[in-house]
Design a protein that fits this description.
1 helix; transmembrane helix; Single-pass membrane and coiled-coil domain-containing protein 4 homolog; transmembrane; coiled coil; membrane
Length: about 60
Amino acid sequence: MRKLKGPVKETARQKRERKQEFAKMRKQIHTIVLPTVVVIFLLICVYVYIKTRPSTMHDA
């Protein structure tokens, strides 16, 4: 038999599985990645605030 050139056609089952994986990755972005980015951003903000606030040690 002759082999056809080009990629193999995706079956309905493979397409469904691929879409499920994509949905799973999208859910992980919302449940893992975004909260992690927010926590890192807040830590940076707190660090900058602590380093730039005026000193409160006045001997008056």
